[in-house]
Structure formats: structure tokens, C-alpha cells
Amino acid sequence: MAFGVIQNVRKVFQLDELGSGALEPVVALDDASFEFEQGDLVALLGPSGCGKTTLLRIVGGLIAKSAGSVAIGGREITRPMGDYGFVFQAPSLMPWRNVLDNVLFPMEILKRNDAAARRHAHELLDLVGLSGFLSARPHQLSGGMQQRVALCRALVHRPKLLLMDEPFGALDELTRMDMNDLLLRIRHETRASVLFVTHSISEAVYLSDKVVIFSKRPARVVRQVPIALAYPRSQKVRFTAAFTAAERIASEALGVIAPVGEEATPP
Amino acid sequence: MRSRLLSQTMYPLAGVALIIVAWALACWIGNIPTVVLPSPDKVLRSMIIRGDLLLSEGWITLKETLYGFLLALVIGLPLAVAVANSRPLNLMFYPLLIALQSVPKVALAPMILVWLGTGLESKLAIVWLVAFFPIIVDTAAGLRATPKELLELARSLNASALQIFLKVQLPAALPFVVTGAKVAITLAVIGAVIGEFIGSSEGLGFLLLSATSQLDTPLAFAALFALSVLGIFAYALVGLGERMMSPWLPPAAERH
Fold first, then answer.
1. Closest Cα partner for A39 from A3, A6, A11?
2. Which ipTM did the prediction report?
3. Quick check: bond before B33 cis, omega within 30?
4. In chain A, which ranges are E strands?
5. Are strands A4-13 and A67-72 parallel, antiparallel or unpaired?
6. A113-146 burial: b if 16+ Cβ within 10 Å, else e
7. Domain B39-254: CATH architecture, name and number where available
8. Closest chain B residue to A77 measured between Cα atoms?
């Protein structure tokens, strides 16, 4: 059996659950299924507000699903497992803690804030190029640096699975490319499995072993695209035929462009 | 550095000096009777002659202010935690708290005097009443404004309710607590003076009233001046507390 098995997951938000004033229950996810292996980096790609984030929170055990099953490493997920890492769209650092203490927050909660934990935190911050900012406060850092701290915080307890919710969506293009390369390097060193929510086609293709494409809400999996580009990847890969072909398949599945062969068809 | 010092101390001082000069000129040129508006030098003389009296009465008012304020903190903070964390308690009491906040609490002072007498207790009750609301309302708002992602992060690590409260909610709410405390301390001074106005035989509020009734306007002005010094001092104490907590506070620019 695969490491991660997501099967026929459905999520219906009841009336007051979202606090959005909706007049009827909202079907956020409708029959999402896909699998991934340990160490895989899987991009969840789809239009904004399509329920990818909801799926990520279900996998993380933060919200309950309405139907279906989610099993990671053979365990059915019904509540937070405590050994996953989360990275949100905003860095969401604690303004009252310095960089090092922000990174060590999970270890405090898990009551494993010992010398080994501090050493690991230092290693991670070194890896993301922030070893000179250990005692800086979040507000003294740029957005990209803050997100790198958040990445270290998500990794400090050596999670089996890293759940990332559009983590680089708020960054500018160049910073985002840097962060993509950093994520690939970190993934290579930590061997963590990663689920990565994004609505950027090229980011999804560049990063992942597999792109899972969702439809508009209620979200279903419309296509899974394996990306056959060898790791380690560098930005040059964006200009290869294989990369463009994968982007094209993803774009077709998203309905951004018409499938090949249908373009010439008269209406 | 030098120019900053200049703008931070010299300009405010110059402003005060300007107003005092204008005040003195108005008294001399307008030939205003001392009973109506004493000139600055007469107020100063009264302050020096009655220095002991001002200090002892000021000490009483300061005690009323600070004790009542501390009482409001001690009772307000746990209640805010209860209201913010329990949905039933929140639904039962939060709207009531907001509604009560709009009641002019000084209007209750005569009643409190009937219940608690003219001693320290009634002053504490009035100070507590005016200082309590900003503390509980701001603290509850702060606790409820904890960023959702931080709560999710803590929950994803299976944090206990106590851990979430101590490591996430409380530090996130601290800037709000400080804001509430700053409002509360200024109201507390007002509360103490109102209490003394309505029924007391001591304190700066009492001194102010009795000086006015004896047409000793310079002393009334001296008491007024002592009161503002007291207010600034009490506010500075809260500012000191804020500074001591500053490792946990975000920089002022990011506060709510």
C-alpha cells in the first residue's frame, strides 16, 4: 500500500461552520482520491477557493472529513498526529519571540526542547541562510526571510509529512524561485514527504513528483500528472520541452487552454 | 541625538512656558480677581506653603487609584479569560459587558457611597468599576484575536489547552491588555476624584472641593496641579510595566 492514501474524501461545511453567512451547506470537496509514496513531493493544483486547503487541513487532522478515508503511513487520520509540519500562506510567526525561539516552538509543545533540538534548529536556520538572525524579531525580517523561518519551524520536529498551504504565494517571483530551490534542497536532505498546495502551474511542475489537479468547487481530482524530470532540478529545467509539455497537460486539465486537437474544431 | 533631545524635551517645555506666560499676562492685564483666576505665582506660592498637605492628600488619592486599578486587573483578567474561552459564558456575559460599558459608571457613585460608606472601600469600588471594563473588554478582544494559524499550528502538535493558552493566546493578547490597562489607569484617577467629590474627608478631590468652598482658589489650583502630576505618575507606572514586558510585546507600530 502507498504511504499516503486519500480515498473518496468529501467535505461539506455546515451552515455556521465557516461563519460566512452561507444560506446552505457548502460542498468544499467532492470525491478527492489520490495516493503518494514516502518522500514524494505532491503539488495540489487548482483554482483559488477550490477546497485544496480544506483537503490539506483534513490530511493534517485539523478538521474532520464528511466522508471517505485518509491514511498516512498506515494510520487513519482522525485528529492531529503531532508529527506533521505545517507552513501557511502567511509566515504566522510569533512577534514576541525571536527567530530561534519561533523555530523551537514545536519542540516546546512536544516537550523535547533539549540541546539536540537547539542544535537541529541551528542547522535548519543555517540551511536556509538565516544563521546570522537567530535573535532577530520577525518584524525585522523581509517576507521571504520570515517564510524561511516558518519553514524551519515546520521542520524542527523532523515531521514525516510536510503540509504547505500556498507558502510562497505572497512572495515576489524571484524570491519565490529561490524558495522553490530551497524547498527542493531541504526535501532532498530531510527526505520528508510534502503536500504542497499552489495555484501556480509552473511552481507545481517545477517542484513536484506528481501534480494532482483539482476542479472548481466542489473540488474533485480531474487529473494526476506525474512529472518525469530528474532531481536535483535547477531553474534551467523550466526551458526544456518536457517541462513545457507537463505545463501544457496541467493547463489543459485546468481548462486554461483547450486540449490539443480540439483547437481547430469549429463551434 | 541632540536635536531629538531638543524636540522631545525643549519643545514641550516651551509650550508649557508659553501658556504660563499667557496666563500670567491675562491675570495682570485683565486685572482678574484671585478668587476667579489666581496668577501662576500665587498658585506656586500656595503649592510651596501647602506642600505637606498636597503630598499627604495626594498620597491618599494615589492609593485609592492604584489599589482600585490593581483590583480591576486581578478580577478583570481571569474573567476575560473565562469569557474568551467559554462559548456559553461568552454568550451569556459578553453582550452584557459591552452594554454595561456604556452606562456612565460615575452615576452609580452616590449609591456606592450609601452601600459602602465614605471610607476607602467606596473609593476602591468606584475606581474598580471604571477601570474594570476597559481591562476585561480589551483583554477578551485580544484573546479572541489570536491568529488562527498559530492556533492551528499548536493544535497540529497536539498542544494541551493550557499550552495553547500560556504559549499562544496569552502572549498574543498582551498588547491588548496593555492598551486596556492604559485606558483603565487614566479612568481610575477620575474614579478616585469622583469618589472623593461625592463623599470623603480626605484626598485631593476633597481638598479641591473644600478649597473652592473657602474661596481659596490658589489652593484649588494647586490641588488640580497635584492631581495632574498624580495622573501622569500613575500612567507612567503602567508604562513602566509595559517596558518590563516589552520582550513579549511586538514593536509599537504593529500593535492594534
1. A3
2. 0.89
3. no
4. 4-13, 26-36, 41-45, 67-72, 75-76, 84-87, 161-165, 193-198, 210-214, 221-226
5. antiparallel
6. beeebeebbeebbebbebeebeeebbeebeebbb
7. Orthogonal Bundle (1.10)
8. B156
Beta strands A221-226 and A210-214 are antiparallel
- Whole-angstrom CA distances from B90 to B86, B100, B142, B145 are 6, 15, 14, 14
In the structure grid, which three cell numbers stand for residue A6, read together? 486519500
Q: How far apart are CA A43 and CA A205, in angstroms?
A: 8
CA–CA separation, B193 and B25 (whole Å): 31
* pLDDT tens-digit readout, A165-194: 999 988 899 999 999 999 999 999 888 999
Chains A–B, number of C-beta pairs less than 8 Å apart? 61
Closest CA to A89 of A27, A154, A167, A3: A167
* DSSP 8-state class, residue B93: H
Using a CB-CB distance cutoff of 8 angstroms, which residues of chain B are in contact with residue A106? 153, 157
Q: How many Å lie between the alpha carbon of A60 and the closest alpha carbon of chain B?
A: 7
Q: Which amino acid is at B75?
A: I
- pLDDT single digits (tens) B114-172: 999 888 999 999 999 999 999 999 999 899 889 999 999 999 999 999 999 999 999 99
Of residues B152, B163, B253, nearest to A109 (C-beta): B163
Domain locations in chain B as residue ranges:
1-31, 39-254
- Three-state DSSP at A151 gives helix
pLDDT higher at B251 or B37? B37
C-alpha B245/C-alpha B115 separation (Å) is: 38
Reduce the DSSP state of residue A126 to 3 states and report it: helix
Query: In whole angstroms, what separates CA A82 from the centre of its chain?
Result: 17
